[in-house]
């Protein structure tokens, strides 16, 4: 089934069908990453504006790489170089970018909902590359793709997310995506970062908050680590030693999860804090696959939104076999 | 003279709900009598109030007129014109202007400006502390002489329990109410909405209900200690209401107000739209239920709008960056009718009380339709259908979440000192 996306602001409002479609669309672009020559001409002549109002390394480079591998040109705006510090409003900045006629705006912003606010005022597609503590849709998609590659399915899994869930946009996007495929969530971390309200943010999805990591890892198929984002918190800090004592993922604790369990981390990793090097570099870790898949997912997103050719199921040049796209039912 | 005939007079102070004519003579009410029985002079003007409610003039005890200092968002003139359209005959403007109304000169400036704005009476609130900074006590006696009707550091609470205690002691001796914006600022730091499932889902920083109720608990105990008249502004949380109920049961002189937006909307209505951002923020479903119960059972003493204009340039930004506050004047009566009267929760009499004798009692004044009383009246319809278009507002700001909402019932005429200052 074909889906049209005007914007990609959040995964929460998307159906399982639409999410499956996005994942299937990413599949051929995953293949491209293995080719010696990775550049397509699909978006030749198109321009993607990358507006990062909050510092970012990997997501910005990933979207930039995705755009260039599709043949698009990019315009880059980074927080440091922006005129926001000169008193310009977000909307004025975005209107100025838009006046240079990009075909799509990818934006990251420290305020939750900022892309929604911008999208209400723009006629080009807006892609949310992370908004405050709300969502990070492309991360949710690339995580799902990684899980599907490793475990063969994203259905009915036990997913444990560890760390500062309250302030994590990655956690929210994952809950809204995987929850629609029947996954059950266990959220675990210091109680002030794992409020009980989280259990109700996605009606229809089983979510529980636990505070003992040993219990939270029991039977997990997927373990998602979150970095403790000290720079976003104006709360009193928690001692790193206490965090390590209670919540660090080490080999012994990992042993409580299911034998095939995989470990994801959106990066950047604080080695020796939330995760031991042994686990981060171990066979169950998918950290670098996530990064590779990030480019594929973002190529699919940009292709669907910036090409204006959303009527076709897949990119015509990619010759995807029908049985592969049958993954939509996954 | 002005004869208001064929109306239904609803006057909570005298418990009157009857078909009565009212004859105004200059600034006073000359006579109130059975329909058609008043003999008015030949040259008296006639206002036909057939099918309409004639109530004492509405009083809004909590508004922001932004003058002096923030005239790009509102002036005393534009704000009072919007108030008149909302049926208000008197408004109490909060002191958080630039400069803060913390001395008699600023108070006199506000009153002078109100005089030439002509129309709605403006009763200033004075700051409790100098600059509302929570350090030294402001020149409250001087401001009282100049015309303030109460004190408040609104926008924030009186900073410390000790200062609140001193202000209450002092105001008791001056017989002024202390109006408290109840908020524990450490609990509310950085928050942009009420903490709950919605804030968690949206990734917006929330303040717990306790941010308000902790401060209310502090203040009602200080009211007991000092015997002061304490009024809790824009009360939004169930737990706060329980504190007020407790205080009243002990006979303390504690009152509170509720805003139309808090008894209409809840946190679940919040989207990434700064028109839904105010402080206190929209509360939980059970808080709204408690507020509605409190409005019905008498725990809530008044409806106040907390009219808080912010010009579009300030308000039309990311949710996190937008200032708190929404417009209130022109939708207050219609929301009260919708939520309280048409829904069957409150009698019309009780709703009128919340706009008239309720706030009057907090201020220690009278509000009554009777011969010899001031000729301040609000005349409104119960079932006129209309749609609020904020672009038509005389306010300089446009920050209302109720833009485009269709209502039943509206102010038809606002009469101050015998003069019709607004007519629909």
Structure description:
- The complex is a heterodimer of chains A (330) and B (424).
- Chain A is an alpha/beta fold and 330 residues long.
- Chain A has two domains: 16-135 and 290-312, Aspartate/ornithine carbamoyltransferase (Rossmann fold, 3-Layer(aba) Sandwich), CATH 3.40.50; 137-288, 3-Layer(aba) Sandwich (Rossmann fold), CATH 3.40.50.
- Helices cover 35% and strands 14% of the residues of chain A.
- Chain A has helices at residues 16-32, 58-69, 90-99, 114-119, 137-151, 169-178, 213-217, 240-247, 251-254, 277-280, 287-306, 322-325, and strands at 47-52, 73-78, 104-109, 126-131, 158-162, 184-188, 207-210, 222-225, 262-264.
- In chain A, strands 7-6-5-8-9 form a five-stranded parallel beta sheet. A four-stranded parallel beta sheet of chain A has the order 2-1-3-4, with helices on both faces.
- In chain A, helix 2 packs across helix 11 (287-306).
- Chain A is globular.
- Chain A starts with 15 loop residues before the first helix and ends in a 5-residue tail after the last helix.
- Chain B has 424 residues and is α/β, with parallel strands linked by helices.
- Chain B has two domains: 2-53 and 373-423, Urease, subunit C, domain 1; 58-363, Metal-dependent hydrolases (TIM Barrel), CATH 3.20.20.
- Helices cover 32% and strands 21% of the residues of chain B.
- Chain B is built from 14 helices and 19 strands.
- In chain B, the strands form five sheets. In chain B, strands 1, 2, 3, 4, 5, 15, 18 and 19 form an eight-stranded mixed beta sheet that branches. Chain B has a four-stranded parallel beta sheet with strand order 9-12-13-14.
- In chain B, helix 1 (76-85) packs across helix 2 and helix 2 (104-117) packs parallel to helix 3 (140-146).
- The radius of gyration of chain B is 20 Å and the shape is globular.
- The model of chain B has no long low-confidence stretch (mean pLDDT 97).
- Chains A and B meet through helix 4 of A and helix 6 of B.
């Amino acid at each position: 089934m074909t889906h049209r996306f005007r914007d990609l602001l959040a995964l929460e409002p998307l159906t399982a069908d639409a999410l499956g479609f996005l994942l299937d669309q990413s599949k051929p672009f995953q293949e491209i990453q293995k080719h010696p020559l990775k550049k397509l001409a699909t978006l030749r002549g198109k321009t993607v504006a990358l507006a990062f109002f909050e510092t970012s390394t990997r997501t910005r480079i990933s979207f930039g790489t995705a755009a260039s591998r599709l043949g698009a040109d990019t315009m880059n705006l980074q927080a440091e170089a922006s005129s926001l510090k000169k008193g310009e409003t977000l909307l004025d900045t975005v209107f100025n970018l838009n006046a240079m006629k990009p075909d799509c705006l990818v934006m990251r912003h420290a305020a939750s909902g900022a892309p929604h606010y911008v999208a209400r005022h723009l006629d080009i597609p807006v892609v949310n590359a992370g908004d405050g503590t709300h969502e990070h849709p492309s991360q949710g998609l690339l995580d799902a793709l990684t899980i599907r590659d490793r475990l063969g399915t994203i259905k009915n899994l036990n997913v444990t997310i560890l760390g500062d869930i309250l302030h994590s946009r990655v956690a929210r996007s994952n809950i809204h995506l995987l929850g629609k495929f029947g996954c059950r969530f266990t959220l675990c971390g210091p109680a002030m970062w794992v409020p009980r309200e989280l259990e109700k943010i996605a009606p229809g999805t089983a979510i529980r908050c636990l505070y003992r990591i040993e219990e939270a890892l029991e039977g997990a198929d997927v373990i998602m680590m979150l970095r403790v984002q000290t720079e976003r918190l104006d709360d009193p800090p928690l001692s790193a030693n206490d965090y390590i004592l209670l919540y660090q993922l080490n080999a012994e604790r990992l042993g409580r999860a299911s034998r095939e369990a995989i470990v994801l981390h959106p990066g950047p990793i604080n080695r020796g804090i939330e995760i031991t090097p042994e686990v981060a570099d171990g066979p169950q870790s998918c950290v670098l696959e996530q990064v590779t898949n990030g480019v594929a997912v973002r190529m699919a997103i940009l292709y669907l939104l910036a090409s204006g050719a959303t009527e076709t199921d897949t990119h015509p040049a990619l010759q995807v076999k029908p049985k592969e796209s049958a993954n939509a039912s996954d | 003279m002005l004869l208001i005939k064929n109306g239904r007079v609803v006057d909570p102070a005298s418990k009157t709900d009857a078909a009565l004519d009212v004859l105004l003579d200059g600034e006073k009410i000359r006579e109130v009598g059975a329909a058609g029985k008043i003999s008015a002079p030949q040259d008296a003007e006639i206002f036909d109030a057939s099918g309409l409610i004639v109530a004492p003039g509405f009083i809004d005890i909590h508004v922001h007129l932004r003058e002096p200092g923030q005239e790009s968002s509102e002036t005393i003139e534009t704000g009072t014109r919007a108030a008149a359209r909302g049926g208000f005959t008197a408004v109490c403007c909060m002191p958080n202007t630039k400069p803060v109304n913390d001395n008699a000169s600023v108070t006199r400036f506000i009153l002078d400006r109100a005089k030439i704005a002509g129309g709605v009476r403006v009763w200033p609130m004075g700051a409790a502390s100098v600059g509302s900074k929570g350090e030294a006590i402001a020149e409250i006696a001087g401001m009282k002489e100049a015309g303030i009707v109460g004190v408040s550091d609104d926008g924030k609470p009186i900073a410390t329990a000790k200062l609140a205690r001193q202000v209450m002691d002092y105001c008791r001796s001056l017989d002024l109410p202390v109006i408290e914006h109840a908020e524990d600022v450490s609990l509310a730091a950085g928050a942009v909405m009420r903490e709950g499932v919605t804030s968690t889902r949206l990734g917006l920083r929330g303040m717990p209900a306790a941010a308000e109720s902790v401060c209310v608990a502090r203040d009602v105990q200080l009211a007991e200690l000092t015997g002061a008249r304490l009024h809790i502004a824009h009360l939004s949380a169930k737990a706060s209401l329980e504190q007020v109920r407790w205080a009243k049961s002990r006979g303390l002189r504690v009152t509170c107000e509720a805003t139309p937006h808090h008894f209409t909307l809840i946190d679940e209505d919040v989207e990434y739209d700064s028109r839904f951002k105010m402080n206190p923020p929209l509360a939980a479903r059970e808080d709204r239920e408690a507020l509605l119960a409190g409005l019905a059972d008498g725990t809530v003493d008044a409806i106040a709008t907390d009219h808080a204009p912010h010009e579009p340039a300030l308000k039309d930004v990311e949710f996190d960056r937008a200032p708190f506050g929404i417009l209130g004047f022109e939708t207050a009566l219609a929301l009260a009718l919708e939520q309280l009267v048409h829904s069957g929760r409150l009698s019309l009499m009780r709703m009128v009380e919340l706009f008239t004798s309720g706030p009057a009692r907090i201020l220690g004044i009278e509000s009554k339709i009777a011969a010899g009383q001031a000729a301040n009246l609000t005349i409104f319809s119960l079932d006129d259908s209309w749609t609020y278009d904020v672009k038509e507002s005389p306010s300089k700001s446009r920050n209302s979440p109720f833009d485009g909402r269709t209502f039943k019932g509206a102010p038809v005429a606002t009469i101050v000192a015998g003069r019709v200052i607004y007519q629909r």
